[in-house]
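Please describe what follows:
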Amino acid sequence: MNSFTTPPGSDTFPILSAQALRQLEEKAASQGISYAEMMERAGKALADRIQSHLPLQSSHSILFLVGPGNNGGDGLVAARELASHTHHRVSACFLRQRDDPLARQAAHAGVESLCAVQKDALKRLAQWTANADVIVDALFGIGLRLPLPEDAVQMLRTVRNALSDRLSQPPSYVELTQPIPTQSAPYLIAVDCPSGFDVDTGAHDPHILRADETMTFLSPKPGFFRENSAPFVGRITVATLGVTERFAEADLAAHRLITANSLRKRLPVRSNFSDKRSNGSVLIIAGCQQYIGAIALAARAAQRCGAGLIHIACPSAAREVLAGQLLEAVWLPIPDQGAFSPRSIPIIQDRLPRVDAVVLGPGMGLAAETLDFLSALLDTRLPPLVIDADGLNLCAQRPDWFKRLPPSAVITPHQREFARLSGLSLAEIQSNRWELATRYSTVWDVTLLLKGAYTVIASPNRPNAVLPFQLAALATAGTGDALSGIISAFLAQGCEAEEAAIAGGILHALAGIQAEERVGSARSVIASDVIDALGAAFSQLESGSV
């Protein structure tokens, strides 16, 4: 799902390393926003976020785990605010003794505290954990170097064991006609990052607590987006503290998070005075006898995203099946029966002057004559182009494929397709997705959309765009075909390659969320559900409800 909560109106965020964040803090401090003021803002934002999870006019138990540094200071400000302005029972367990103004202010506001080094303190911490509705992990932030110190390990182990005991308590009764009742877990919020987490690499200590949510300050951190670390971060809330917008410079970040809010600005204008040709024409070159559905998925997605006219070039075996289903499309009389061959090139060349974008590859198959077809097609002057699926697999068999692309080409590989194109292993790609996307978008001179959780879009001489979605609903056959159709529609309506890829990726994800909500489970979503949800995704954007 969309795993980010951002301030209203926020469109993009730099994704900053620990070193870049320190530079940003220093710049803010030198220009009038002191470290103490940033801590106040962080703590108050955290208190507001915690309160948003709890019913108004009610009393809950909130436990803070407080470290010795600035991360603990953020937690103490939040604890003070909650104790001062709500009915909640607020407690704090200090890793080490603190006798500073923030600790004294929290105590004055009514925060009950203990220090982990005191006698029987860990036993009391276990009791507090057993009764907490919210647990706030404010032990260590971005400055920690792994591994965790032993006193922190003991404290976190105490909390984990108490949580495990709490969740494993057997129910007092079982109703045979109903699910077994279970005791709900507390909501766990990490402050800036989970304690024991390397924000640059995603490496983490084995004793780390798994957060339901991380409230992070100034910017998202690179380590949040790693497959092996994202589950420990949970949902991510970004609080910029009034600093990032004023002082973050483009050269601080090689990567930027693009939120759904930004898509409204990226959508092509659709005039009531437009016609089918002014709304763009797309030519879809796809399919073979075995893979017919890919054609329909790409075409329907392009139609649903506003392309005024869809032309389809596919082998006649596929055309005979689909012509009665895609009533709005224009069909090219391709002579090939089961798979593309160079015989079809003249007919496609004749149509190219009348189209604004081309989709190449979905379901084309890997026949030798299809490879000859693709080679001949790439020697043709082409409009803006999206290459996906078998189009990419065929390109991987031609070492010079990228030298033959038109300007503004977009490629949309998943990790295995990227491995075939680049010659890299899957392990190399998985461990270094962003940097490799940057490198190869430059080498190949393309806009490269690398699909997967937290899709990354790389264009030459630009910071990477990272999309804030991880969606199991999209992990099913045909959703990539739909994405290529979506992007082609935006290209046909005049978007530049990077803008079309970003807009397409965001809309595709929003439609995936809508589809999951409609069918009730990510397991049950199919590609057609995603396409059918595109209208609702547009409506969501246009109403400002994302």
